[in-house]
Give the backbone structure.
Amino acid sequence: MYNNFITNKFKKTMKNYKELIRSFTEEDYINNRINLHIHTTYSDGKGSFNDIVRQGADYKYIAISDHNTVQGYLENEIPEYVIPAVEFDVWCGYVFMHLLAYGIDVNSGVLKPFLAKSKKETEMDIIRIFAKRDIRKLINAIHEAGGIAVIAHPACCWALSLDRFIKKLKNYGLDGVEVYYPYKRHRGIIKFNTAAKVKQIAEKYDLIMTGGTDLHDTSL
């Protein structure tokens, strides 16, 4: 089984990731001091996990958030500046979305049912879009694993009202909104709201604001 918890060099610290991430500023993201959305070859990225980690030494903090897997954290040494993370594919009603989980205990058994069972479930869009994760159960599992749940690139969600959609997610336990991210690749084409609107909604519902480049390449 792909997500078999075998080799584990990751050691959970007692760091309060929720308050740490809440303390990050807009300038941290804009000035490339923090990047909380990165993919590696453990999912659909081009860069190796360890190469990206080494590059991250120039940042205050980074988070590698591969799709539906924490395998990179289980198989490699993780320095303090790397925040444990994963990005889940999940449906919320008629809206397909990505949910970032930060500060999770990657050894937690409550996450295992939501993790990929094969490599294809981490890298192939045609397979990932058929995810059957229950959004409420997923958010609860993220919390039980000590983490926070953050909606990724929300301006790209096919929601009739992004405000109502995020309010619904907050009622389910959503902790944060990805606000600071570039509109590149298909994100620049499939875009229904502005970054300013996303920020306004996050502030309205007092949600943690995060950011990252959604890196899929080899260099930060």
Remarks:
- Residues 1-14 have pLDDT under 50 and may be disordered.
- The longest strand covers residues 85-92.
- Residues 162-172 form the longest helix (11 residues).
